[in-house]
Amino acid sequence: MDLISTTYYAVICAVLSLVAPAIGGVLPRVLAGVVVGMAAAASLPWVKSLLGI
Predict the structure, then answer these.
(1) Distance between CA atoms of 44 and 6, rounded to whole angstroms?
(2) Contacts of 3 (CB under 8 A, 6+ apart)
(3) Is the Cβ–Cβ distance between 16 and 36 less than 8 Å?
(4) 41-51: per-residue pLDDT in tens?
(5) How big is the chain by its Cα radius of gyration, in Å?
């Protein structure tokens, strides 16, 4: 994984970890992680194109 991808996912995970305790039980947190992960993976090519990479 290149530096841009690693940094991108690190930022996404950090933000999710800040919000996760407020989400509720285990299942809602897991579902939030799945949704955020899918959105992050889907938007990475767009972010890279914005950065010209």
Answers:
(1) 11
(2) none
(3) yes
(4) 898 889 889 98
(5) 13
* DSSP character string of the chain: --HHHHHHHHHHHHHHHHHHHHH-SHHHHHHHHHHHHHHHHHHHHHHHHHHT-
Q: How far apart are CA 41 and CA 28, in angstroms?
A: 20
Domain boundaries, the chain: 3-51
pLDDT in tens, 3-50: 888 888 888 888 888 888 888 888 888 888 888 888 888 988 898 899
**CA torsion through residues 31, 2, 49, 11, sign:** positive
